[in-house]
Write a structure and sequence with these properties.
heterodimer, A: 246 residues, mainly alpha, MetI-like fold, 75% helix, B: 324 residues, alpha/beta, D-Maltodextrin-Binding Protein, domain 2, 3-stranded antiparallel beta sheet, 45% helix
Amino acid sequence: MNGAARPTQAAVRRDIGFFEWFFSADTWWGNNGILESLRETVVLCAAVTLVAVVLSVPVASVLAHLRRAELSTTWLVSISRAVPTFAIAALLVPWSLRSGRGFEPIPIFTALLLLALVPIYLNTYTAIRQVPEGAVDAARALGETELSILTRVELALAASLVFAGVRVAAIQVVATEPIRAFLGGDGLGRYVRDGIGQSNNTLVVGGIVLIGGLAALTGLAFVVLERLVLPNGVRRLARQQGKRTT
Amino acid sequence: MNPHSTRRRAGLRLLVPILTLGLVAAACGGDDSDADTTEVPAETTAPPAETTAPPAEGPTIRVRGQDFSEAITIAEVYGQYLDAKGYDVEILTPAGFRTEAIDGIRNADLDLIIDYIGGSLTALAPDGESLSDADEIMAVIGPLYAEIGGTLLDYAPAIDGDAFVVRGDSEASTISDVADLDYVFGASAQCFERPQCFLGYTDPDVYGIEFSDTVTLEFGPLLGEALQAGEVDAVVWNDTAPQIDEFGFKVLEDDLGLHPAQNIAPIVRTEVLEAYGDQLRADLDALSAMITTEDLLAWNVETDLEFRESAAVATEWLEANDLI
């Protein structure tokens, strides 16, 4: 909202070809360019995923370790997914505006967070439950504390599945974040929104390509990250477990 | 502002009440026409004093409103009025938007539609120049309607066009005044590509306003929420949005005449008009001349804020104006 910034919200011609649009410099740079929209989307999605991990992983780990609340929390988390993300965000927007908090970020952040919690929570809980009893018993016999068992045995052995949950959550968040453009925000969804509003199919297709591309890249990034972060032994173990469980 | 895609959202939001309403309207329509078949002979033998002349025998006039509350009420007003005049009228369940209404005339599925003339212009001549004067628009769309078998009748004083809306405490009274105010501008995606909207506001040859920022919003109540919350300082809405008054907003004068005239005007299928002769034209013109922008606004307040049914609102207005 600084006075100096001249809005560059120029309409895109309806008959523009996809490649002409996609490879034009104006499409990428500036206040309404793809790079700025991409930045907005990536920042929001990263924040949502991070908060979802911070909230889900400790709670799921502790509860799974204690073998507590399996049915109730799993059920609670799963039904939160049954409420459409768009409906949650759309319901929160008028409240957020009236209480002086603006269009963003509370409504869209809350809606995406509820979406992201589910796969991370469920994967973490299941992964820890499936850690071989023998490994836990052996650690206990060696005098490890419960905290040490949870972090150094259970979470270590569950790491690959937890990671998979985070990856699924991140991809879902990236693919859903474009609803933000329909609720007073921008981000990559702006191309779909403007394209629909202006009957401009090039923009709609462009938006789909960008959103799909970012979601695919997110998945890829997590695969690479997993290779870098997790020791080979843990990954091999996960592959063996995967044959049995997933 | 009546591009049908913007209305579609309002329509979707109101889908459930409208569907209910549509069923009720259809049921009422059925009852009315049943009643007519028994009443019409009685009227022809002893016409009421206020009726100028009994209408000639003719085909059933099928009228259908576009699927958003204002258009539904307008269709009910025209339909119930003709019905009371003794014409054989069928008020169909509201469906579709401008495209479907125009197709209805073209395909002879509908005999009477009511549209906003500026909207008709963009639909019938999408590549034509934009006009802001009502009579100029009529001169262009009249022949275009004739080509598809419709006759455009005189427009009503009632206008529901683009409205440049600001909060009540704004210093501006015309759109030109906004040039120095460094406002944040909010509108639907359509507005940003139209010369009669954002492009015209920012064009140095027209208003030449430099907004400090722009926000794209869904057309509808969200515009009011955003304006009220101070997220934006000006929005493009439509003249008869009842929330404008409710929130104490004000509509700025379009001092350079950028917005196209959006008077409402009835379009009758030419075949039907000829079958009834000049009486139908005279009756419709007499009704159109009575409908003002204030009436549209009052109807919208009743249907959108008080959730009353369009059919009842229409009957009440017709009775209050001694038209039925």
